[in-house]
Amino acid sequence: MNASFSPISPKLSASVDGPVATLCIDNPAKHNALDLEMWRALPGLIAALDKDESVRVIVLRGAGSESFASGADIAEFETVRADAEGGRAYEAINEAAFWALAHCSKPAIAMIRRFCLGGGFGLALSCDLRIASDNAVFGIPAARLGIGYPPGAMKLVTAAVGAPAAKDLFYTARRINAEEAQRLGVVQRVVPDNELESTVLALAHDIAKNAPLTIRAAKAAIDEAMGVAHPNADPLALADQCFDSADAVEGRTAFLEKRKPVFKGR
């Protein structure tokens, strides 16, 4: 069944096809840069997808074929990020979007084509998995813009790539290609551009077939180990919920009957 969500921003859209939701950054005229309205809208859209019981995996992508997301819209900086007060308020809105993705109970996959820069890079690193086309380019240009990142955003970057790589990327503001991004652990897979969508959707559907409660518990435990856990998530309680679930019974029964399990998420 196909469904769509009413966009809070005209430059964002969310749709659901079976167990996979697609959240699209839709500002191709600016290489999918995110303006303040878009940053503000992201947490609400992510929350709506998280609450939708039909959704098991979220795919984050950019519209068109030229960019995943080129970061924050620099044209707004003179008005919304012109001083420390404005910068701090802006970063708080950015962080809310990053953490909404990172703390979503469902796995999120970033489908990265071409430019993945600045705040767009931050959104990608907030996802659980990142798949990139072989023409993808990554970078965090903050040091060339003279802007600062708060500890929360840095925590997500460091959790994803480690402190030395994070320092390298921030200090140099250099851009890296898909091959180096994979070597640093920024992305898990690199595929030819014409195979990107099919690869990501195949991965999303493979994940969606597995036990949702198990994946939720695994995500909570891994996030706790990395130091980016949701404050209200209890990995031990979520693991216990798995053992007491109908899905655990289904998994055992399917194994004994030599058939594929059909998990309901309860």
Structural account:
The chain is α/β, with parallel strands linked by helices and 266 residues long. The chain is built from 12 helices and 11 strands. The chain has helices at residues 36-51, 77-80, 84-102, 119-126, 142-145, 151-161, 163-172, 178-184, 196-208, 212-226, 235-243, 246-256, and strands spanning 2-5, 12-17, 20-25, 57-62, 67-69, 108-112, 115-117, 129-133, 137-139, 175-177, 189-191. The strands form 2 sheets. The chain has a 7-stranded mixed β-sheet, with helices on both faces. A 4-stranded mixed β-sheet has the order 5-7-9-10. Helix 1 (36-51) links the parallel strand 3 and strand 4. Helix 1 runs parallel beside helix 3, helix 3 runs parallel beside helix 4 and helix 6 (151-161) crosses helix 7. The longest helix has 19 residues, at 84-102. It is globular. The mean pLDDT is 89.
Summary, kept brief:
This protein has twelve helices and eleven strands.
List keywords for this structure.
seven-stranded mixed beta sheet; 266 residues; four-stranded mixed beta sheet; alpha/beta
Helix-and-strand structural type = alpha/beta
User: Shape from CA axes?
Assistant: globular
Low-confidence stretches: none
Termini gap: 21 Å
Radius of gyration: 19 Å
What kind of sheet is the major sheet? Answer: 7 strands, mixed
Count of DSSP-assigned helices: 12
**Average pLDDT number:** 89
Helical fraction equals 40-55%
Helix and strand arrangement:
Blueprint: E1 2-5, E2 12-17, E3 20-25, H1 36-51, E4 57-62, E5 67-69, H2 77-80, H3 84-102, E6 108-112, E7 115-117, H4 119-126, E8 129-133, E9 137-139, H5 142-145, H6 151-161, H7 163-172, E10 175-177, H8 178-184, E11 189-191, H9 196-208, H10 212-226, H11 235-243, H12 246-256
